[in-house]
Amino acid sequence: MKRLCLLFGMLFFIAPSAWGGIMEVGASASFRRSTIDDNNYQESLSYTGSLSYYFWEMSALELSYTQGSALLSVKPVDDTKIITKSSFRLIGVDLVITFAGKNSTLQPYVKLGGAHIEKKIVREPEGLAATEIESPAGIVPSAGLGFKLRLSNTFSIKVGVDAWTSPLNEDDPTVDYAGRAGISWMF
């Protein structure tokens, strides 16, 4: 997957015909904190950046990078406080199909592809040593849908949902998903 991402990135800068299409740069961020009290709360933070090359009317290859972290603190009544920290990285390549023309104000899209995912989970019971929970890295299928709201010829607001399978080491994986809202700039 890393080789595919590297090849995809090199094609943008090496292939002379690559500059015949439209490029798009996108970014989004998310932060959330939910608090019950000083001992029971959760926080999460993630960032995503993407680079897309549009060919034909509105089809694109999108390279994306997402990094995030979360912290969960739980202390049941008369019990030990446990802090769980997790982090992840997701590098994806998707084919994006847009169901509108490039001059449309509202541009719905779907995307299908794959991603390389890495996760790290650490549990820290109060007063005890931290332990890492094994979570293997690997390639997983990914998909998404959403829309772009075009504000000008080059600037848009992008809203969508992306999904991928996890964990990697089980026969019956679950589906992880993320809602995203961000901006994009086409050039």
Task: Give structural notes.
The chain is mostly beta strands. It has one domain (2-145, 159-165). Helix content is 7%, strand content 66%. The protein has an eight-stranded antiparallel beta barrel. The chain is elongated, with a radius of gyration of 19 Å.
List strands and helices in order, with pairings.
Blueprint: H1 2-14, E1 22-35, E2 41-55, E3 59-74, E4 82-98, E5 106-125, E6 131-133, E7 138-150, E8 155-166, E9 174-186
Antiparallel strand pairs: 1-2, 1-9, 2-3, 3-4, 4-5, 5-6, 5-7, 7-8, 8-9
The oligomeric state of the chains shown is single chain
Find the structural class using helix and strand composition.
mainly beta
Order of helices and strands: HEEEEEEEEE
DSSP E strands, number: 9
Q: Largest beta sheet, briefly?
A: 8 strands, antiparallel, barrel
Give the percentage of residues in beta strands. Answer: over 45%
Terminal CA distance: 27 Å
Radius of gyration: 19 Å
Record keyword descriptors for this entry.
187 residues; mainly beta; eight-stranded antiparallel barrel; 66% strand
Short description, anyone?
7% of the residues lie in helices and 66% in strands. With 187 residues, the protein is mainly beta. The chain has one domain.
